[in-house]
Amino acid sequence: MSNAVSALQSASFDGYCKVEEAGLVGMITLRGDLTSKGVAKAVKAVTGAAMPGQGEVTEGAKGRVGWMSPDELLLIVDHADAPAIVEAATTSLGDEHSLVVNVSDARAVYRVKGAACREVIAKLTPADTSVMQPGMLRRTRIAQIPAAFYLEDDETAVLVCFRSVAQYAFDLLKDAAQPGGEVF
């Protein structure tokens, strides 16, 4: 079996904000009835996180959970643990109508670090980044590609996109973070 590698092998750029590919990140799509107690129990069991509300991301001892749509969650966990978490969640859900899929290797993840991280993202998306606070998640687009982002803290934005457009996304983020491109 080959070794897993991230899309850009932890590429980084130092501009007026630092842009870096996050490396290998475990990502699991869980689809089902998000109002179900069984889904909430499974999510809590595998991540330690509470169910997020619409547009939220919650954090637990073993990972984060982001609300992606009325019937979809994104579980963000350690890459090495993702296969076991898929199995545990599937077992926990039992006969509950649901789908649990490891999408780790189909995604690329970036961190934009710095006081102006919202500004860098704002240059690329129609989403209003000025209202974003830690714990909020936005599914949107950057330039011409679908993406989602959330704030880990006030100076760190995390952006998720498809791996097939990893280089394009990185180049967009680098361009938006170029020194001299600050918005005054």
Automatic annotation (TrEMBL):
Coiled-coil ranges (or none): none
Annotated signal sequence range: none
Cross-referenced InterPro entries: SoxG, TrmE/GcvT-like
UniProt organism field: Aliiroseovarius pelagivivens
Listed SUPFAM superfamilies: Folate-binding domain
Domain of life: Bacteria
Pfam families recorded: SoxG
Protein's UniProt name: Sarcosine oxidase subunit gamma
